[in-house]
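I had to read the description of the data format several times before I understood it. Each protein is reduced to its one-letter sequence and a matching series of backbone shape codes. The format is easy to grasp once an entry is in front of the reader. For illustration, here is how one protein appears when written out as sequence plus structure tokens:
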Amino acid sequence: MNRAFLFFTLLCISFSAFSQTAKLGQANQTEVYLSEVPFEPDAPAVILMTQGESKFFGNVFETTYFVRIKILAESGKQYADVRMRYYVGDKRYEEISGLKAQTVNYVNGKAEEIKVENEGIFDVAVDNGYQEVRISFPNVQVGSIIEYTYKKTDKNITFIDGWTFQNNIPTLYSKYQITMTPYLQYRTIGQGSNYASKVEKTDAYGTYSWTLRDQYSLKEEPFMKNYRDYVDRIEFQLTQYQASSSTSGVEWENVMNTWEALGDDMITYYSDKGFYRSNPIEKESLNVDLSGASQKEKAEKAYYYLRDNYGIKGEDWIYPKQSLNQLLKSKVGTPVELMLTLMGILKSMGIKCDPVLIGSKGYGRSELVPYPFLNQFDEILLLKELDGSLQFLDLTDVMAPFGYVDLDKHVAGGLYLQKKASKLIPIDIRHNSNTVHFSQVSLNESGQLWMQSSFRNYFYKGLDLAHLVASNERKNEPLEKLFKEEDQTNFSNFKVDDAIHEKNFYTVNYEVTYPQTGNSDFISFRPLKVSSFSDNPFSEEYRVFPVDFEYSFTETYNTNVMIPEGYEIDDYPLEEKFTIDGGYVTFMYSPMMMDKMLKITARLEVKIPLIPAHQYGNLKYFMESVASKLSEPVILKKKSNP
């Protein structure tokens, strides 16, 4: 169930249209003999068929589900542990009933059906008002077909769950059907490239269906943690319902049909929780110095006061669980609770500040739907005006400096909440999250190759590095764990320069020695040791989703090789430049021989961070070339005696 707080009890007339529903034990011969998915041959299991059929019964929405899965490999047996989560809350909003399940094995061509008994079905409470039905299928083997069917009822008819056509294993056939009632009007919202181009639709007498076939499995791919934003699916939101009127009989009532109405509903909800109070820390503010010469100084003090004195815990969501008074007592809150509290503090100091609802990356929406659809929002930002300049503010990361916004919230737009004036606004958060690596190579007093290095990361790359260092410290692990281990090298003399709050960068300085190189006739080493792309991250043969680097950035490498006395350069990498069609990424490598020094400069630049899947082959080859170039060695050799 989609979490929402607008529920209706309506008198609805239910009717159903004839449809052919899949049944247990009716797998066809193609399904029985299938041993491999043609478009994904390494899949351990496959969904042969998944089907949903929804109807209205009064003020209850009911969906009948049917799923048929085939196990193709030993590792696919894990999919015989099925879990269905549903939202109970405090009023039994959703319920699951009528569950039937079985394993079907084929012995000498004959089907042997093993029904799942009651002891194989568990209904378990999880968290935040959710329950989970778990099915443990018996006697599952490679080649088994497992199938199950059940009904789920939902009392929330404002937002309908809808249907997701893709799953974590390939899906050969996925169909959703809904029979609408004439007393309710819904907006239908579809998403995904296959939905846009390949969906099969039907519409007959108020019954609508959507079918997709041969869907790739859903899985995280390198540089695409937000793959859910591109999943093929369909959703519904109530826009109007018929209500009785004493004067005109029956009238249509609108439901969140404008951005202003939707925004006012959210503002009312936040107000009821106490977050629009004039000063949310009246008692505590007597002991808190929030003064400053500028609005920015005041806002920074308020930000750090909350960040450093209140615990941030729980799901980042648009709905606070606690009231403001409860938060002030517990001093632990969810991100939205702390941000709304910060909003109140800023407003009490005369600083204009309001919430912005957003759909964060990975929540399931690659782009905002341009009409009032509340379900596309899951988190908030604050938009404040400081000394005449607008700035977005976030409070979800306990290590983030003032002004940093979690990268999952760097989206194209959001809903700016203002009483009777809420509207969509663009979001464009600029930053230079780049990396600069500098090294100087020489021989130490023992005649060993010695590399002094500085690894500096700016803005969000710096914050990521700060988190990695902090994680290592918590685990009591040495800092060399941050770098790729390499034979015959020793890391030492680590020093951290944390200037992330003052100058927006974080630096790790370190030294590397090569003990085996002492007094060698030939010394071979990689001059560019540290890079995110020294190994090609793209090894899969095909790509389902776009490659998302999240933001544009550059990685710059500078290495000065001081030619030791008695040595000369025997070989070094040649100059090279390459890119891919469209200019998404570029790379240059430039060596320069100088007096007693070889200077090497390399630069990788991601210019367009979202690279479509059809460019994957080009990108894979590009990154393979980058990794190869970064691994090319410099070779020093001893001069021969005259």
